[in-house]
Amino acid sequence: MNLESPKVTVEKPAQYIFDALSDVKNFEKLMPDNIAKFEVTGDESFIFALKGMPEIKLKMKEKAAPNKLVLGAASDKLPFTLTGNIDSVSDSSSEVQLKFEGEFNAMMAMMVKGPITKFIETLANNMHKL
What we know:
CATH class: Alpha Beta
Mean pLDDT: 95
Structural class: alpha+beta
CATH architecture: 2-Layer Sandwich
Radius of gyration: 14 Å
Largest sheet: 8 strands, antiparallel
Low-confidence stretches: none
Organism: Flavobacterium beibuense
Protein name: Orotate phosphoribosyltransferase
Helix content: 25-40%
Strand content: 35-45%
Number of domains: 1
Distance between the termini: 28 Å
Order of helices and strands: EEHHEEEEEEH
């Protein structure tokens, strides 16, 4: 299952966005209002939970400054990645798009597609908070 957020323009340079997203504790600023838990568990990992959803642990998998960050599930039960693509528009602005890729069976995919789509759209729309 592959999902993409809309591209959002942020009035910050690409390197600034990359550095902010490299610090996992900044993801708390991007979370939706219905967050039930957010806990940094290491330099490159955190756990979060939305109300009514199970906890998800994410860890940094890949960094390619200043254009790409990849977070992945810390558990092999539900393998997925969340990729942040950052494109420089000018010296003071960039475009950010989030891509979610996961391998789920058809039933699971049907259940999680809506909530995950809404979640990555919220993360992208909150980029200006960094």
